[in-house]
Amino acid sequence: MSIKKRTIQGIFWSGIQNWGSQAGSFIIFLILARLLTPKDFGLVALANVFINFMQIFLNQGFTSALIQKQDINQKHIDTVFWIQVFIGFILAFFTFSAASLISNFFQQPKLEPIFQVFSVLFIINAFSQIQKTLLQRKFAFKIIALRSLLGILMAGIVGIYMAFSNYGVWSLVGQQFTYEVMGVIVLWKASQWRPKLQFSRKYIPELLNFSLNILGYKLVDFFNQRTDNLLIGYFLGEIALGYYAISHRILQVMTQLLIGTLNQVALSTFSRLQDDRNRFLEAFYRATQFTTLLALPVFCGTIILSSELVITLFGEKWLDAIPIIKILAFAGILRSVSFFQRSVFIAINQPSLQFKLGLLNTIFNVIACFIAVQWGILAVATAYVISDYLVFPISQVLLKKLISISWKTYLSQFLPPIICTLIMILTVMTVQQWLTPYVNPQVRLVICSITAIVIYSLTLISIFPNLFKQIRILVTLIQPLK
């Protein structure tokens, strides 16, 4: 099967995974948001800041090295597997032991048992990393999608049941734990690969040479992405963090739905095309344009309709999240443009550039958010977004130097989504202003959303018919694997 066909089919199943799992998890998230309090979400968000930091050392880049390499053997795989398992047990022990210390630092005693339960997740995840990596190498995204969907379903059932049973914050803990356990079960049942009792030291320098830059990038990216959460949780408290966590969760879901579908396949595709620069560039241009066509209008629409969105989905107790969502949506717009840079850097074996960019972004972000926290969560959200925009021009220059992109060709990819989105925005704002005195937020959200979809689609068809034709051809090629 050709790379093009495998990529398109990979996009199909990656889309099923992202859209299905994110839609399912978001529905569950909405239910839990109405049953639980901002404080519950704030506590789990604070716990996840530390858990996600420790998770970096489990996902240190060895698995990315296996995807990037053209040829690997059984010893390569076994070596990485046993390293992952060893690290998983070390992280679990450390987290369990440090639970009391961390909870005391944040002055939140309820965090200690949460940390202790979450510590087991490192061991569970250690047994799923290689299975998922090998499936990605084979473009077997169907299995990955099914794993995600089943995990979301079972986790949702557990979380909602616990919430209705008045378990409070433990509903979110139970939901997350169930998802990870189901993921390991599905991957091991679906994959034919099994580890052998062998370990080769000679592969470690080779793996480290590649993965250290990945690890470095993930560390700096963690502080770039989580500094705002840490500062809000420490200085402003768990309730403020709860509002911020809800807003960030919406950004995360939208990013996964609109960008994650292509990005999950991008690394495997770019890696296979790394020796064919023309096809590599074509794949990069297409991925960037199709993602922007989806993401740009949605993030802009979110800014306009954030009030209607929050009231309809979460209820009036979450009104304080509205201005935060408006601000963070601007970060989503930027991500729709730059999301594939990381895959490009890794695919052509230049992860050090990714690390340097991440470090620069993190320095800006930490300084900006630390200064801004004294003025509250809106100032922190604004600082978070501004730091991303400051680094963006530098990343574009490096990208051009690395893969010799043509500015004219590259920038032309954004012309259709920008024009269609501007026309959509003007139309939706007019309709919204006209409807506000007469209908409630729920009705406004429905009418304005339908208007946005219709206007954007008609504009695309009318002004850019060739691009619309290409999208139709792509859709007809997307068929599930036999």
Q: What structural class is derived from the secondary structure elements?
A: mainly alpha
Q: Please give the alpha-carbon distance between the first and last residues.
A: 12 Å
Describe the global form. globular
Work out the helix count. 20
Work out the helicity level. over 70%
Domain count: the total is 1
How would a crystallographer describe the biggest sheet?
A: none
Strand content bin: under 5%
Which stretches are low in confidence, meaning pLDDT under 50 for 5 or more residues running? 477-482
Instruction: Work out the radius of gyration.
Output: 22 Å
Query: Order of SSEs, N→C?
Result: HHHHHHHHHHHHHHHHHHHH
Averaged pLDDT: 81
* Number of strand segments: 0
Describe the structure.
84% of the residues lie in helices and 0% in strands. It has one domain (3-413). It is globular and about 70 Å long. The longest helix has 37 residues, at 277-313. Mean pLDDT is 81; it is low at 477-482. The protein has helices at 3-35, 38-58, 62-68, 74-105, 111-118, 120-126, 129-137, 141-164, 169-190, 203-236, 238-272, 277-313, 322-338, 341-347, 351-372, 377-403, 407-412, 415-435, 441-463, 465-477. The two termini are 12 Å apart. The protein is an all-alpha fold and 482 residues long. Helix 12 packs antiparallel against helix 13 (322-338).
